Amino acid sequence: RAKENGRNGYRFFEAAMDEAQNDRRRLELELREAVHANAFEVHYQPQIDVTTGRATGYEALVRWRHPVRGLVSPAAFIPLAEETGLIVNLGAFVLEHACREAGTWPSELRVAVNISPVQLRRSGLVERVRDVLEASGLAPERLEIEVTESVLMDDDDAIATLHSLQGLGVRVALDDFGTGYSSLGYLRRFPFDRIKIDRAFVSGRADAHATIILRTIVDLGRRLGIPVTAEGVETPAELELVRRIGCSEAQGYLVGRPSPHPQPVRPDLLARVPA
Ligand code: C2E
Ligand code: MG
Ligand code: MG
Ligand code: MG
């Protein structure tokens, strides 16, 4: 009897596995069609200088306009897009959209674009970026590429590509800092133009430990001469904290949510921050 149950249990497990595989296959098929049909939108989230409260730029964040599920968040499809290679075309679309859009903004505003390790490993990224900049007329200094440290893991080619991007005049930011493995080693291996501290150290009731880590990262950035952006600033108290400890810039729901058309930052933002 125990054996029978065991077997049923196994069948059940197999059925669940099949279902998961089917889900994945369906998602992949839908994603493939979506890339083909260009069913994506790019939203823009503001970043501010914490001393002036003024916008310094916007981060481009992709969304999938799904016929049934509505607007799907990138967390739900970027990993699959990376596994299947679809990220290459999707990423090219985001890059073009972002540069074209930013070309219409006041010239002091940058645009930040997330680049996946898969895109970075493909040859031709540097040429593509150069072509897109040329076509859009955007000054290279106004484009900031965001990469996570996983990109650099034992990959000299990736580092060479980032150097070439900097050679074009494009800025390179280290995204989600503090969540990966040996972050400090990466700061030695590549001269990043910016560090973005992951919101895990910023949002919510960040505890004493998170605050100490936050301070240490900002201090590290200052010593290295690299400006630090705090991600996930959701409350006036969080904005006050990141300003007080010396972050240069802030991004988060308090400053502004991602939106299809970049929204101006409210001029009284800093006035609401406790002194
Ligand atoms: P990320 O690059 O770290 O982008 C910041 C994420 O945090 C965005 O999520 C943004 O909406 C969210 N966020 C911003 N402020 C706050 C806040 O105050 N509180 C909270 N809870 N969240 C906040 P989103 O748009 O869902 O994107 C998730 C991730 O997907 C991005 O993280 C990035 O790694 C990836 N991603 C998005 N667009 C692209 C893209 O075009 N290409 C690639 N390769 N990855 C992308
Ligand atoms: Mg990012
Ligand atoms: Mg991030
Ligand atoms: Mg991220």
How is this structure best described in words?
This protein has nine helices and nine strands. It has helices at 2-37, 78-84, 87-102, 117-121, 125-136, 156-168, 183-189, 208-224, 236-244; strands at residues 40-49, 55-66, 70-72, 110-114, 143-148, 171-177, 194-197, 228-230, 249-251. The protein has an eight-stranded mixed barrel, surrounded by four helices. Helix 9 (236-244) links the parallel strand 8 (228-230) and strand 9. Helix 3 (87-102) runs parallel beside helix 5 and helix 5 (125-136) packs parallel to helix 6 (156-168). Bound molecules: ligand C2E and magnesium ion (MG) (3 copies).
In short:
The chain has 275 residues and is α/β, with parallel strands linked by helices.
Write the layout of secondary structure elements.
Elements: H1 2-37, E1 40-49, E2 55-66, E3 70-72, H2 78-84, H3 87-102, E4 110-114, H4 117-121, H5 125-136, E5 143-148, H6 156-168, E6 171-177, H7 183-189, E7 194-197, H8 208-224, E8 228-230, H9 236-244, E9 249-251
Parallel strand pairs: 2-4, 4-5, 5-6, 6-7, 7-8, 8-9
Antiparallel strand pairs: 1-2, 1-9, 2-3
Helix pairs in contact: 3-5, 5-6
One magnesium ion binds at residues 59, 114, 146, 175.
